[in-house]
Amino acid sequence: SRNRRGRSIVKENIALVPLEPQSKVSLCFIDDSLLSPPTVRIIHSGHACNVEEERYTERVYTIREGETLELTCLVTGHPRPQIRWTKTAGSMSDRFQDSSVFNETLHIAKILRTQGGRYYCKAENGLGSPAIKSIRVDVYYLDEPVVTVHQSIGEAKEQFYYERTVFLRCVANSNPPVRYSWHRGREVLTQGSDKGVEIYEPFFTQGETKILKLKNLRPQDYANYSCIASVRNVCGIPDRSVIFTLTNRTASPSIKLLVEDPIVVNPSQTVSLVCITTGGEPPPVLTWGSSNDSLPQRSVVNGGTLTLPAITSEEAGAYSCVASNNVGNPAKKSTTIVVRALKKGRFWITPDPYHNDDNIQIGREVKISCQVEATPPEELTFSWLKNGRALRSSERMVITQTDPDISPGTTNLDIIDLKFTDFGTYTCVAALKGGGIPEISIDVNISSTTVPPNLTVPRGKSPLVAREGDTVELECLVSGKPKPIILWSRADKEAPMPDGSMQMESYDGVLRIVNVSREMTGSYRCQTSQYNGFNVKPREAVVELIVQYPPTVEPVFMEMRQGLGRPVVMTCRVLRAHPSRVLRFEWLLSNRLLHAGAFDAQRDETEYTVRNLNRDGLGEYTCNVINEAGAGKCTFLVTGKAYPPEFYYDTYNPVWQNKPRTYSFKLQWTQMNPNAVDRIVAYRLGFRQMGLERWWVQEIPVDGPINKGELMSHNLTDLIKPESYEVRLTPITRFGEGNSTIRIVRYSAPINPHLREFHCSFEDEPICMFTQDKNDDFDWTRHSAATRDTKYTPNTGPSVDRTGSKQGFYMYIETSRPRKEGDQARLVSPFFNVAPKNPYSISNPPAYCFGFFYHMYGKHIGTLNAFLKQKGQTSSEGPVWSLNGNQGDHWKQAKVSIHPTSSFQVVLEGIRGPGIEGDIAIDDVTLEEGECRDPPTSDSKVLFRSSHIWLLCVTLVMTLLEGQR
Asked: Is 918 found in the same domain as 799?
């Protein structure tokens, strides 16, 4: 049939003839039906222990900890879908962004147990819903078991003996669940084997621990006990064991700290903590810990001695010595290190506690308070000076060392009935007993000029207008003597200050903000602090800050592709600005002014139109939207460059083997948005052999316009086997070159059914378009000897592929758990067409030779069958070839002639035998025209049945029946 443009539409598989490199591009019109939403399939490689299907078709992939996880996401769909891997596990915190990848293969080397979970592959190309598949990864491991010993001693009433009962508990972390067994010397201990022994699992830790209970210890109970933990060689994980020697001296640990508690030291002093064991059998192991979660980096541990050189205040805290020998509970002793320090000296003046007056007046009372932070606080001492001379407490000068109504570490000096002679400088001196720490002294001046604070905002400083990015200074004028500290905070909302804190201090009343941003617009409160000033009701003021910023516009950048002679409309939209009154706009092309004017206050956008695009109109257009704070910029790149082509991956491209040393490849692609620019007149094709620098370049002419979704193809010939090639395809219009697309072409076996020979060695996905039968019990697995660890199922499966290469791939059936005897796995070939000489009937069906190599090694080998499946066939005939049982550790070839009468497929079926040592492998599947030349093997177990032989058998049976009648 023909489409509306008169081009042929392919309805059946047809022979594709290689074209010479200089030939024109051949077009096959597919229209929008070629555009297809994505589909996803996950395959695996690497050290898989097992891959199994669970309910709801969920796939579970088990792998041993420390090995390499490789998952590959096979997708179809056009345009080529974008791929993303993500993972979710038990908790929200385990969602992994760092492992999200945007390519087909997810590779995790040396996988950890924490990296198990469900992995998702998501593919999307903008058509339909994204395709998502998941696979659950189960990481298997077995840690060394640990034995802990506990004993109970109970006094029997009215009798003179003690009963000692000992419990040996064995614990091992594992996945899958572990099984435990206990041994005494070489004797296997089981429940009931010894009256003095009881073996059980506590109800609350069932499956996690195994307890050996020795009731009323006997002499023979003093022995070597071994706990063996096993996961039954799953994933090839060997059993692990631990030995504990029980003697009459076995005892829990006890320790002693040879230090005081607490230890008070000065900064920079070296501190040594000594811990010794005073009991315990086996000898306990000593460890040190800290209340700060970890020991200081400079600390040194030498056995039971912990040394902290040049200790700092940050390293103060509790330190613990722990002794453990797995008998009873660990012993723990702790001490606290206190590093002496003085810091943060503050003062405040209370003018008159009994009168509502903020001024200092003669005859009234004045209180001076002084506060410091001291470690340890009990060593803190205060002294007072007046004008440099020591001051003692008296009836009018009352000194109080601590004030219970305020913070600790505070001293007060009450001056009662203030006199003129009391004016002067009072000094508060703080020190620690024993010295070694510098004193802190604070001077407070009391005079007739000592006045409470006053706070104002300077004229013209509020509101303060600034531009985004400027450095601004918010200012409050503070008067009074002494001047207090000024505290700044946000007055209009509960928001942090520019440094992230809720409050900032200023000693001069100025708040300096560097690189101010629009989010900092608002009201700021300045208020006096009681510290270093008067203890009176805080004074406060508010400063308004207005941050102006240039207009925010969209689009920031836009590429606009258009053909010559067509109109181009560009629109720049204002989203926000401060001040919001936009002053003007200007349009430029490469810094050349095109149009300018006042911005329409009723609209939030400005527009520029190129009515007839020519070569001079190509380039970068800029729209500046300007207010008092600056300009917002929209940029438009107007180009006639064609969009990149999109390679078509869904159809597996046929490869020709009509020459012994070269191959051909059918390149297929569609054009992204072909009508957006001028007509594409040709494609520039470049290709080079991987690893070489030289490019081969040619032009592929295009006749007529290209429709969206139209499939184009070109045959690459004389490619050298088995090299890979990098291919670059670039569309060309009268504008010039467009954007290029690159892909890698890899050599693989041909799968075109009409070629004289079909050969598949399973070296590449998607395995020559073979598919897994959806109605069987499990799948065939693609593997190479280099990635398959035969230690999991020794004495089974091939150690190399059919050619003897450890890197080569083959297909095999994995018969380990959960497979059971009789389970079937079927691998189905693509359809092959029968091309008779007479197109109207097939009176003499053509012959084909179907061949493959097989490897059937292991004591549990089941059956390998080969079937011929013809199109339209409703009932399944018997196998055309069949073999069962162990055939030895080498590859053998099978050949059988088949005579299909319609389009057909060949099916290879593997049936699981009675055990796990039954892996069957196949490789190098071939299909050739004509009868098989080589005679079939004479092995009596092999059954060859072509349709001719089957018809002959039926004829003979019918003849015999007639003779009996």
From this structure: yes
Closest to 775 measured CA to CA, from 854, 869, 895: 869
Integer Cα distance of 855 and 796 in angstroms: 10
Q: What sign for the dihedral angle of Cα 374, 378, 379, 382?
A: positive
Residue 892 falls inside a structural domain: yes
Asked if 76 and 214 sit in the same domain, the reply is no
Distance in angstroms (rounded) separating the CA atoms of residues 193 and 197: 8
Note whether 419 and 462 are same-domain residues: no
Percent of the chain with pLDDT over 70: 83
**DSSP characters for 268-310?**
T--EEEEEEEEEEESPPEEEEEETTSS--TT-EEETTEEEESS
- Phi first, then psi, for residue 539 (nearest 5°) are -90, 145
Same domain, 765 and 705: no
> Which range of residues forms the domain containing residue 659?
645-746
Distance CA 606, CA 624 (A): 10
Residues 191 and 233 placed together within one structural domain of the fold: yes
CATH number at residue 378: 2.60.40.10
Residue 424 resides in a domain: yes
> What would the pLDDT profile of 715-741 be if each residue is shown by its tens digit?
888 888 878 899 999 999 999 999 999
Strands 630-639 and 557-561: parallel
Q: Which of 213, 219, 212, 141 is nearest to 180 (CA)?
A: 212
* pTM of the full structure: 0.57
Q: pLDDT category, 442, cuts 50, 70, 90? A: very high
Give the Cα separation of 85 and 102 in Å (integer): 6
End-to-end Cα spacing for the chain = 57
How many residues are there in the chain? 965
Rounded Cα–Cα distance for residues 590 and 602 (Å): 29
